[in-house]
Amino acid sequence: MNLKDLTPEQVQKYFETRLHGQAFTPSGKNLMARCPFHEDSKASLSLNFRMGVWNCHAGCGGGGLRDFEKKFSGCDDQTALANIAEIVGLPQLHLAGAKPEAVYQYKDEAGRIVLEVLRYSGKRFVQRKPDGKGGYEYKLGEMRKPLYNLPAVITANHVVLVEGEKDADRVNSLGLDRHDKSGFTRLAGTTNVGGAGKWKPEYSSYLTGKTVVILPDNDQLGEAHAKTVAASVFPCAHSVRIVRLPGLPPKGDVSVYLDMHTPEELLAEIKRAPLWKPAEPQLLIPAPKFDATASEEIEWLVRGVIQIGANGFICSNPKTGKSWLGVDLALSLALGVPWVDFLISRRAKVALVTREDNPALTKWRLRHILRGKGKEMSDLGDWLWVNSREQSPEFRLDRPEQLTEMVGELKRVKPEFLILDVFNVLHVADENDNTEMRGVLEQLNVIQREVGCSICVLHHFTKQAEGSLTLRLRGSSAIAGWAEFLVGIAKTGGDRDPRKMEFELKAAMQPEPVYFKINSDDLGAGVRIERADPPQSFGTGESKSPRRRPDDLLQ
Prior knowledge:
Elements: H1 8-18, E1 25-27, E2 30-33, E3 45-48, E4 53-56, E5 61-64, H2 65-73, H3 77-88, E6 102-107, E7 113-120, E8 124-130, E9 136-137, H4 150-155, E10 158-161, H5 165-174, E11 187-190, E12 211-214, H6 220-233, E13 239-242, H7 254-260, H8 263-272, H9 287-291, E14 300-302, E15 306-307, E16 311-316, H10 322-335, E17 350-354, H11 359-372, E18 384-387, H12 400-413, E19 417-421, H13 434-451, E20 454-460, H14 469-472, H15 477-482, E21 485-491, E22 499-505, E23 514-520, E24 527-531
Parallel strand pairs: 10-11, 10-12, 12-13, 16-20, 16-21, 17-18, 17-19, 19-20
Antiparallel strand pairs: 1-2, 2-3, 3-4, 4-5, 6-7, 7-8, 8-9, 14-15, 21-22, 22-23, 23-24
Helix pairs in contact: 2-3, 10-11, 12-13
């Protein structure tokens, strides 16, 4: 079988079978789905049915169908091809002229042989069924596949589930019920066709009222399979145990264990294993337990303004200096030096995603603000990472494939603080629609959950000149509701006049407004964003509510 000859429909059938009927999300020429090789809370798996290829943006790998099947089933090339052929409905490749090492017969409830699995050297497997004429068919189609050793399973009190027919036969040969005097009777070892990852929910009904023991292979796929089977049989079984046999090498199984141990030792491990039950969700916990992990003091990243782990906005009208301030914040955090008039608690790794400005302008700002701080690019090391249109022409939060790719990069870099400039070019949703904005903001939450970083987004004000920062923030109320801090910037006159920085915080009382200037010397040696005195026209009318002086924050 040449995999290149498969039609897009056959490729689609393969992936639909392996991904348990997931609904695929279109993304350009590809489709996105949840990856089965890691705990994927967001679709990370990109599929192309026309090309027959896949790629996990979270780092699990990629390739063709054979690569996927080998990784999914933990098998060799020939077995992968046979499995693919079976799924897409093509005649399986049986090894002409070769003698199988073993033939495993699957029987139905009445003891009739309905399926055989042939094992060849190199762990190659081929499945066939009787054709009713004394021969066999290798094209199985959608036939029902029973549990191995099903007649014995039906009459057993105790069932041991393993990952292969060879292991099941080994367990059945031990006569464990003869080695035990405490009622371990009528025992049957079994497996499902294909081993790990191939369990079907309908198998569970055959284990109703039985004591079930699951012996997983010592690998990631075996562990996942054991948990899937346990969850499936738990509602109907008398009891369930997952027995992780000690001393197994990687990919080792119960047969490997029995090469080194006695049946009595296996029986002792089974009895020693705790009863399995599903994890109980704890959606509500006592207040003292909730409070136990609380810090006595607020942990600040930017003292008095940005709490560690908080999300928020730097906002202003266009051409007011928010991009300057965003780059200056990125550099101050990465260098561990004060930002305008606020102490940086410690050095922090930062990622700056700038989508609005030309990359050349961003580079110019970085170089000149660095010089204004008396620093060189080499002083940054790997504390500041940058993405501009030069690295990716487009990045939108509401494009799943672009978000997945960016999340993967951020997880690689592991920043503590992410700056996104500017909000309106990061999506195509209607900013005045609460429903659409909640969808975009949820993508920001995905970044925070997956990466573990604080997020600061640069955004615009409405044309409304008065009122709180929350009221002046452009867009629906969902945007302001998402923010835990707001930093607002306003001009007080011309470009050479001071600019006003105001604050709204959820974590604490906001500091007094700060006035700053963007200064540069005539020689172009550097740009300094530094505190300035307020102009006379801004000297009255300030709020009389108690606030902390920003210069106290540097003490």
